[in-house]
Amino acid sequence: MPALKSPEAVDAWLTKAGWHPGRRCDGIAAAEAESAVESFRNDGGSLDVIAPALDFLREHVGLVAPLHTSPEDTVVFCPSLMYVGAAEDIQELADGLGRKVFPVAHDTYDGGTILIDEVGRFFYLHHTGGYFLGGHKYPALMSYSRGHPLDDAEKYYV
Length: 158
Prior knowledge:
- This protein is of the alpha+beta class.
- It has one domain.
- It is 37% helix and 20% strand.
- The protein has helices at residues 7-16, 26-42, 51-60, 86-97, 137-146; strands spanning 64-66, 74-76, 101-107, 113-117, 122-126, 129-134, 151-152.
- The chain has a 7-stranded antiparallel beta sheet with strand order 1-2-3-4-5-6-7, with helices on both faces.
- α2 (26-42) crosses α3 (51-60).
């Protein structure tokens, strides 16, 4: 994935994965969100579906976008736990932010998770820490595409 430098570039990247303006997958998004809640429960955590995350998933759930030239390196737009114990790490991020968060995507290369909080901000939880991506979809995905350095999520803690 080349660095995405504009909303148009983000849209083009997502379009290659099957997205289009006005895309709606309400039923799939609701089912995937409930599945994520159950997975978190099974991982010892608690998770509430929040409106900004569900809105994002309704438009993007099921997309698989290339991250690099390798077909194994993708961004999967689905709310999944990527490892045992992820619920605890996600809860730690939510506690620090003082807001609920919900996963909306993950990358298959590093197993990092993209999350949205209650006010629609995007964060990235990676094995190296938690990071702020942006205040909404376009700056978040542009930041994500550029990679490090990203703002540490702790700058946004209450």
